[in-house]
């Protein structure tokens, strides 16, 4: 009888030990999973404080007499080059009806690329060498909606330049943030007419729109190194490109197809962080520079920005 009791007690002890080991193992396993669960502080609202503000890609391109000079195939090609960007500023749109039609056709082609695009065209500029500007933009990106709030030709300096800048204020709204950006698209006079005499007046734009986060972009016909840009630099603007040639030669020179540092994007540092600044060497798609220049004598430039 005593042997049976001892046997029963031994079996009970072994069973209890096994159960305890299993429970301990399960608890350890559950503890190993916990680091995957966000741990919120007592005053947390559940939002990730490390999420950055919305990122946006903005491109600028002088499209060389954009209008009748571009056929349907060329406009389709341009659309394919632009489809991956969010807002596009175009300089040198023809003042004729053909210019308006070309921008509309470009927007139509962009709408065939998988995103919805809208466009706005300026009135003709007021001075010599009249032209129009245009903006085309996606109505929404993967994470945000883009809305044009207002656009205008900048009258405050129209008497000081031949082609006053085309301004546009956009609102970029994501689920967690709402930001605005004021763009100024500008095409200065040719080098033979001293573009530095116009560029010096661009500093009046941030002086006037003090509460906006501003980008001033386009074809300045002038290197960013020139002292004419000092006024912008003193107001915390930085050139996105340093030493980047953007105009196309007629023919290769020493193997180089690019000629002058004419195009740039000046970014107001208080509002943005530049993540990328790159150019598109579209001429490589063509057999010769002559063929490429039917598209443009400038290459497009673009920046990817974070709002601060």
Note down, in words, how this protein is organized.
- The chain has helices at 2-33, 72-82, 97-110, 196-199, 204-208, 230-234, 289-292, and strands at residues 55-66, 87-93, 117-121, 132-138, 144-153, 166-174, 178-187, 214-219, 237-239, 248-253, 256-258, 263-268, 272-279, 301-307.
- With 308 residues, it is α+β, with helices and mostly antiparallel strands.
- It has a single domain, classed as 4-Layer Sandwich (Deoxyribonuclease I, Chain A), CATH 3.60.10.10.
- The strands form 3 sheets. A 6-stranded mixed beta sheet has the order 3-4-2-1-14-13, with helices on one face. Strands 5-6-7-8-12-9 form a 6-stranded mixed beta sheet.
- A hairpin with a 3-residue loop joins β6 (166-174) and β7.
- α2 packs across α3.
- The longest helix has 32 residues, at 2-33.
- 35% of the residues are buried.
- This is Metal-dependent hydrolase.
Q: Low-confidence segments, ≥5 residues, pLDDT <50?
A: 1-52
Structural class: alpha+beta
- Mind describing the biggest β-sheet? 6 strands, mixed
DSSP summary: helix tally: 7
Task: Could you tell me the CATH topology label.
Answer: Deoxyribonuclease I, Chain A
CATH-derived architecture: 4-Layer Sandwich
Task: Please give the radius of gyration in angstroms.
Answer: 29 Å
Helix content: 10-25%
């Amino acid at each position: 009888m005593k042997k049976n009791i001892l046997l029963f007690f031994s079996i009970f002890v072994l069973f209890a030990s096994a159960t305890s080991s299993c429970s301990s193992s399960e608890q350890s396993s559950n503890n190993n999973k916990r680091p995957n669960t966000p741990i919120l502080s007592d005053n947390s609202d559940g939002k990730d404080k490390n999420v950055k503000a919305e990122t946006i890609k903005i491109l600028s391109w002088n499209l060389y007499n954009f209008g009748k000079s571009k056929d349907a195939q060329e406009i389709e090609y341009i659309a394919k080059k632009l489809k991956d960007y969010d807002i596009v500023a175009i300089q040198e749109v023809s003042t004729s009806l053909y210019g308006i039609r070309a921008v509309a056709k470009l927007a139509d082609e962009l709408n065939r690329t998988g995103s919805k695009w809208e466009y706005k065209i300026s009135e003709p500029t007021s001075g010599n060498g009249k032209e129009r500007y245009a903006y085309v933009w996606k109505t929404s990106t993967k994470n945000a909606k883009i809305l044009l709030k207002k656009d205008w030709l900048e009258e405050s300096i129209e008497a000081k330049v031949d082609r006053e800048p085309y301004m546009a204020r956009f609102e970029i709204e994501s689920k967690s943030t709402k930001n605005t950006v004021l763009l100024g698209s500008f095409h200065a006079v040719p080098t033979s007419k001293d573009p530095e005499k116009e560029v010096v007046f661009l500093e009046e734009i941030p002086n006037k729109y003090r509460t906006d986060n501003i980008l001033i972009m386009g074809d300045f016909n002038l290197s960013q190194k020139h002292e004419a840009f000092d006024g912008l630099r003193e107001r915390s603007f930085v050139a996105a490109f340093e030493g980047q040639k953007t105009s196309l030669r007629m023919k290769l020179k020493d193997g180089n197809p690019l000629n002058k540092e004419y195009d740039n994007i000046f970014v107001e540092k208080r509002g943005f962080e530049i993540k990328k600044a790159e150019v598109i060497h579209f001429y490589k798609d063509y057999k010769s520079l002559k063929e490429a220049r039917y598209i443009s004598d400038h290459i497009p430039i673009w920046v990817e920005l974070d709002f601060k």
